[in-house]
Amino acid sequence: MRRALAAALATFVACASPATTPSATPAATGSQSARPSPQTATATQTATATPTPTPTPSPRVGPAVLENVQLIASGLEAPWAVALAPDGRLFVTERPGRVRIVRMGAAGGLQAEPWARVPARANPDAERGLLGIALDPDFARNGFVYLYYSYAGAGGATLNRLVRLRDANGIGTDETILLDNIPGSSNHDGGRILFGPDGKLYVATGDGEQQNRAQDRNSLGGKILRLEKDGTVPADNPFSGSPVYSLGHRNVQGLAFHPDTGVLYQTEHGPSGFFPACCQDEVNRIEAGANYGWPIVTGKPGDQRFRDPIVSSGPVDTWAPSGAAFATRPGPLRGSLLFANLRAQHLHRIVLTPDGRGVAFEERLLVNQYGRLRDIYEISTGEFLLLTSNRDGRGRPRDDDDRVLLVTLR
């Protein structure tokens, strides 16, 4: 699949414009200068997979070099997640309920007709709608696409569901519900979905603005769930017969697996309000069956009942972190964790300590240059696709928003 993906992107990469070499700025030293627009419980254990045969050295503990930002597609409406197929098609979800296709390469661009429409419940200045997307690891053979979306349930309640569609002649068909009745609301719907290196499907949910759900093991809200491809519960989940993998989460919007250790990391929104009940956005290292404390604790209190985040935004700063990805390709950035930020309007890069439980270095890239950033996705060249989210009712859209950008870091 990797060879097929590389071949599909060859034309696309060849048409990239010449790179520039501005340097990134560490978070501790202030924001980056402006740049021009882009060119046209069982025993608690860590989720792991088989490491790569030759683990790479730690990534560069220092700033990344931002070489280029290129416009790939524009005119999207509140896009939320992306996934790249082996044939080079880029699948993009839009919160109003459309799955769009972006064709890569010189003759590409945003396809006019959606690949699929689902009955998503979405509205401006809220968080619900069509959210996450994941392609089956065997997509080239079975054509399965997985979606997570909000819908109107009985009595007008907002609920979320996980579904599977099939790619048939370039159109999404045969919607099948895999998991339903995930609590939802206007906000705190979670929504990120991702296949792990173990072949299981990980699903991030929010507390649906009912904080007590996060600590209730019988509720699907405020959790990370782990499922088989068909929506059934894996036999080795930490709680027998339950899809719950970890609990005590407020609103998880990013999931990423470390390329060498296979450990799962996530990004999570902290509370909104006035100091001291504010901020504390988090990056967590996920362990099977572990409790991350919401709403009982926030930040890094050191309470032995819960797992502290590896890093948080603190009590006065808000990131509103969303999609996350590790740099997995060979090079000085491999092993870096990058995540998109909405409120803080930047791309955040973290270098983990050797044990993966702390932060050796962090920096902010693209500060205030492209508005709200929703998702990040690594492609086979080691570059990153980045989604803006300026037409979600909380941003200040430009005429060509929302956009898919290609970011080159070295």
Short recap of the structure:
The protein is mostly beta strands and 410 residues long. The protein has two helices and 28 strands.
Descriptors for this entry?
mainly beta; Neuraminidase; 4% helix; 410 residues; 5-stranded antiparallel β-sheet; 2 helices; globular; 28 strands
Structural class: mainly beta
Order of helices and strands: HEEEEEEEEEHEEEEEEEEEEEEEEEEEEE
Q: Assign a percent range to the helix content.
A: under 10%
CATH topology: Neuraminidase
Question: What is the typical, i.e. mean, pLDDT?
Answer: 89
Query: Mind telling me the C-alpha Rg?
Result: 20 Å
Could you give a short account of the major beta sheet?
5 strands, antiparallel
Order of strands across the widest beta sheet?
1-25-24-23-22
Q: From the 3D coordinates, which CATH architecture would you assign?
A: 6 Propeller
Report the β-strand fraction as a percent range.
Answer: 35-45%
Task: Note the gap between the termini.
Answer: 25 Å
Shape: globular
The number of helical segments is 2
CATH superfamily: TolB, C-terminal domain
Counted up, domains total: 1
| Low-confidence runs of at least 5 consecutive residues | 1-37, 39-53
Q: What's the number of extended β-strand segments?
A: 28
Briefly, what CATH class?
Answer: Mainly Beta
